[in-house]
Amino acid sequence: MATRKKSTSKSKHPVSRGKSGRPPRQRHAQAHAAHRAKSPQKWSHHVMETSDAMDIEHDVFKTGSAESIAQSLKRSSTKSRRRKGTPFQSAMSMLNFYINRAGRNLPKARRDTLQQAKRKLREAFGRAP
């Protein structure tokens, strides 16, 4: 009868471990849980408050027409001291950020209005539509 030779390693793919001795995924889950315990707000709210994103008017995306949204973003982006890019880049970035974060929860009518606001924003900055 032939006997099998036992391998010296425990598994074919050893798990890399960090300083805490846990695999990376578990450390991430632990940090995520600690953050959730401290802050019940959405991460996108945290990003809007603490990043170098420009300062915008309150609820600018929720009310108004495409023209008013575009004009408000243009005003905010030209006045803001917290932006990193050009005023056009910052304004378009904020509009895209809102559309992407809303995702499927954004009604079709509102999504169409925001897409129209993108076109109006390009016109307001003299860009080709």
From TrEMBL:
Region spans: Disordered: 1-47, 67-89, 103-129
Ranges annotated as biased composition (Basic residues): 1-45, 76-85
The protein, known as: DUF3175 domain-containing protein
Signal peptide range: none
Protein's organism: Paraburkholderia phytofirmans (strain DSM 17436 / LMG 22146 / PsJN)
